[in-house]
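sry for the spam today, last one i promise. struct tokens for design, 363 residues
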């Protein structure tokens, strides 16, 4: 197939692009940056266009018309940005992505749209007046694509603008499907983790996801900060599992994914953010330190101090993956500890390479 991949050089996009090339597809890849796909740039089946899709001059219609399938991964997906630039988060995640979807509608192309597990918001059990017998029962934190209700905070908690923008985009795709037979598949990733996730923060302006903050703290011996005590829980999904599932959606055998939404996640890999910090410290000491050394302390900071005014959080989100199991025969293989260790190994190796090259530069 000829596949137009938008956002191809992000974390998920770079791994997916690699897989699509391995499978023999011709990939037209669009992204702002090239670093994460630099190693494949010479591949004969890859055409890479370095492009900000918000600029008017790019040929969206021509590229969509020319493709057999469009995959859209373009997003601002870091909570720090939802607080700092909420309007731009809305514009990119809704307005610009809608243009891509509408180009697919115009040209009758199938679209795989990456959305987010953030659409589910908070759990009912977390509400102040919740009356549930056992609030710890995983059933209260488990979300299903076609039946779960969504609970978001008030407008003043503007973290949720991202969730709303993505939800609205999903609803518009669904409406195009209903009214015009548009063929789409929506993917809701549940905290994918792996090499090339985000970036290590270099300045106060950089707000990547939690893994990168913790990794940076371990490498530099600075405190690992738990936002609001690190009680929120996430299910971490290794990128290889995620790409395997996504590739089955690309294949779409017998049209089984047409107009479907899929959770992609590892329900068995649930941890609190505090457990994640503790596990990363343990792995770092056991696998990556040559001799015993003091490890960073783990401290708690208020959410509004860490991120700024308007912060709120998903308390818990466990994917129900019955649909992916049933329709795609997919099963996640990676447990949390191995996924974390493989991701950490990548960053430890990268930082060693950087140290060697800057020492050579200074010498
Ligand atoms: C983000 C995006 O909003 C989702 O769209 C996306 O699907 C998801 O990442 C993902 O990777 O799949 P979130 O899990 O909230 O969601 O992202 P993180 O920034 O990694 O935050 C996770 C938790 O760690 C939050 O409770 C946050 O408050 C906490 N945190 C973050 C810390 O305790 N310390 C830090 O240094 C940073």
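last one done:
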């Amino acid at each position: 197939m000829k596949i137009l991949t938008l956002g191809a050089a992000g974390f998920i996009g770079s791994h997916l692009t690699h897989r699509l090339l391995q499978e023999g597809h011709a990939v037209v890849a669009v992204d702002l940056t090239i670093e994460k796909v630099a190693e494949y740039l010479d591949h004969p089946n890859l055409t890479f266009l370095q492009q900000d899709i918000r600029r008017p001059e790019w040929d969206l219609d021509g590229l969509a018309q020319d493709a057999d399938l469009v995959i859209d991964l373009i997003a601002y997906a870091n909570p720090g940005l939802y607080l700092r630039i909420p309007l731009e988060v809305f514009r990119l995640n809704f307005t610009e992505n809608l243009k891509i979807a509408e180009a697919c509608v115009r040209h009758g192309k199938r679209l795989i749209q990456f959305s987010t597990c953030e659409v589910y918001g908070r759990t009912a059990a977390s509400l102040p007046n919740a009356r549930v017998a056992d609030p710890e029962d995983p059933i209260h934190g488990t979300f299903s694509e076609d039946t779960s209700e969504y609970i978001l905070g008030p407008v003043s908690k503007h973290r949720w603008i991202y969730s709303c923008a993505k939800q609205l985009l999903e609803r518009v795709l669904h409406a195009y499907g209903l009214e015009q037979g548009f063929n789409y598949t929506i993917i809701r990733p549940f905290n994918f983790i792996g090499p090339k996730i985000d970036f290590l923060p270099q300045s106060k302006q950089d707000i990547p996801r939690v893994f990168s903050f913790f990794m940076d703290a371990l490498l530099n011996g600075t405190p690992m900060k738990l936002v609001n005590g690190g009680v929120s829980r996430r299910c971490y999904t290794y990128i290889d599992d995620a790409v395997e599932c996504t590739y089955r959606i690309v294949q779409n055998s017998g049209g089984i994914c047409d107009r479907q939404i899929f959770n992609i996640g590892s329900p068995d890999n649930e941890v609190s953010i505090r457990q994640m910090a503790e596990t990363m410290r343990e792995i770092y000491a056991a696998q990556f330190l040559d001799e015993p050394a003091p490890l960073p302390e783990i401290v708690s900071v208020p959410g509004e101090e860490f991120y700024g005014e308007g912060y709120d959080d998903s308390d818990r989100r466990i994917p129900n993956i019955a649909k992916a199991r049933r329709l795609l025969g997919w099963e996640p293989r990676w447990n949390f500890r191995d996924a974390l260790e493989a991701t950490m190994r990548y960053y430890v190796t990268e930082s060693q390479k950087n140290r060697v090259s800057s020492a050579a530069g200074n010498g």
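The mean pLDDT is 96. ok im logging off now
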